[in-house]
Amino acid sequence: MSVRRLALPIAGVVASVALVVPPGHAEPSPDALTHAPQAKVPVAEGYGGAVATVDLDASKAALGVLKQGGNAMDAAVAGAAALGVTEPYSAGLAGGGFIVYYDARHGRVVTLDGREKAPAAMTETSFQENGAPIPFADAVSSGLSVGVPGSVAQWELALKKFGTLSLKDALKPAADLAARGFVVDQTFFDQTQQNAARFADFTSTAALYLPGGAPPPVGSVFRNPDLANTYRELGKRGGSWLYGGGLGAELVATVKTPPVRPGTTRVVRPGLMTTGDLRAYRALERSPSKVRYGPLEVYGMAPPSSGGSTVGEALNILESLPEAGLHEYLEASRLAFADRNKYVGDPGYVDVPLRELLSDGFAKERACLIGPTAMPNPAAPGTPDGTYPGCQLDGAAPPPGVKADQPEGPETTHLVVADRWGNVAAYNITIEQTGGSGIVVPGRGVLLNNELTDFTFGPAPGDPNLPAPGKRPRSSMAPTIVLKGGKPVLAVGSPGGATIITTVLQILVNRYEFGMSLPEAVAAPRASQRNAAATQAEQAFIDRYGAELTALGHTLTLVPGPPVGEIGAATGLEFLPHGRLQAVAEPSRRGGGSALVVTPARR
Ligand code: GLU
């Protein structure tokens, strides 16, 4: 087995994955009010629509919408709102996200940008003091890092343009779920535990997530009646309740004066957000990024996310090489990250050369830097200027101020939905860090995001991702839809900060270069090279490929946690022959995900 022309031992990779789900598990009653734990299954096959999320309750909420005649966009919004209940440390109405959507009626891919924005009062130096960046840990739990939330505006835009449900109806499953509660699993417990110290420093957060001073135990039922009411009121009043109304005023008050526990020694910087910032917020429809990859067209999220451009550039580089194995995967990713770090930011503020970054000429020029052994680190960014005479060996260091690997949070979430009409949604939703800012809006049951920590704090002259008034921080989120002959064949995405990009890229490489099935591609061990000296990897990846890759000059290190040793938590779906749908989630990472289909296939 060679890591250059790879023949992976794929049978071993997924030995534990149930490829077809017993119908009793694949189609639980969406109305079941029981709190008895049900098994989550990572793969489901069938017809009439499919859903995959990290969580059974959220998958059920989305599936219920499909069963009641809603389309993929309706179900995506319902699923995202439900994730705001059961995955509240990763998703929520005070966060943001990106949707890549295949609109079957018009046969086109569109994207909806619900990315959080900087307040109007934010400047290039807002995350600096005395000319130096403030400690990252301080920014994480602060009002300062709270971006103007985009999710609610995005949901309204999504439903208005592509859905059939009212906001009220789309939020109903989530409101009901928040009211009746869900069973605490190990992942929820662990995430609460990991956040306990900072949650304890905010009175509203401690009251909700540390009842009695400790995380709710595994197996207990966790209810969030405040969130249930917030969703219900939001459904009745509409987004203007947040964007200029009473809910918005409460958010602003919380951001400006976080409910800090008396006596805490934590430095909690207040935020800059105003009700005017909320009023000015708009979710945006944007053109997707697009690259051709063999017979496929790969659509992703264009800037302000770097997901589509970086995945796309790396695929282009791989395609222009004579062979693509794991060594080439790592090198293509390294080069694409060098370019991402130099060129990608909010296109409203930065002239992002997206066309050139995704051009074949640029890919060829970059690809010719890849040799038989690992290139020196860090790789310098290329020059996507439309002139590609050949290899550009013009220096190895990135420009001053551009860090090779920005600190981005380890958590968000991703869901996929396909409906009976052929619409497909790939949706990344986030509040940035696991637990966001750590600040719950008192009486509302919702955590505020800390998305503005995705900005480069600086000083970093020339960095495209410095903060500015109203700017959207660069994201790595990479919801992706693959078309063949104009029809969707696959959708995929993942959480994981900047590792989102490499997870999506690796799954596509596993699927289309190495011939794995989608469940195999998702389950396979991961590695993430982001133009850093060492490639972060899971232990199973190191065990299998470490020796050969090390011999080629790569350095592999175990990815730090939490959770230690895991990269990503992907969800995806594939259109199999004869109209059969395959929904795919993680078999084990983050406790495993939940795949469901409307009508399960017979085994
Ligand atoms: N804030 C991250 C981004 O937009 C996503 C959150 C995460 O997965 O860490 O890229």
From TrEMBL:
The keyword Signal applies. Keywords: Acyltransferase, Glutathione biosynthesis, Hydrolase, Signal, Transferase, Zymogen. Residues 389-409 are annotated as: Disordered. Its EC number is 2.3.2.2, 3.4.19.13. Pathway: Sulfur metabolism; glutathione metabolism. SUPFAM superfamilies: N-terminal nucleophile aminohydrolases (Ntn hydrolases). GO terms for molecular function: leukotriene C4 gamma-glutamyl transferase activity. Residues 1-26 form the signal peptide. Pfam families: G_glu_transpept. It comes from the Bacteria. Cleaved by autocatalysis into a large and a small subunit. It catalyses: glutathione + H2O = L-cysteinylglycine + L-glutamate; an S-substituted glutathione + H2O = an S-substituted L-cysteinylglycine + L-glutamate; an N-terminal (5-L-glutamyl)-[peptide] + an alpha-amino acid = 5-L-glutamyl amino acid + an N-terminal L-alpha-aminoacyl-[peptide]. This enzyme consists of two polypeptide chains, which are synthesized in precursor form from a single polypeptide. Belongs to the gamma-glutamyltransferase family. This is Glutathione hydrolase proenzyme.
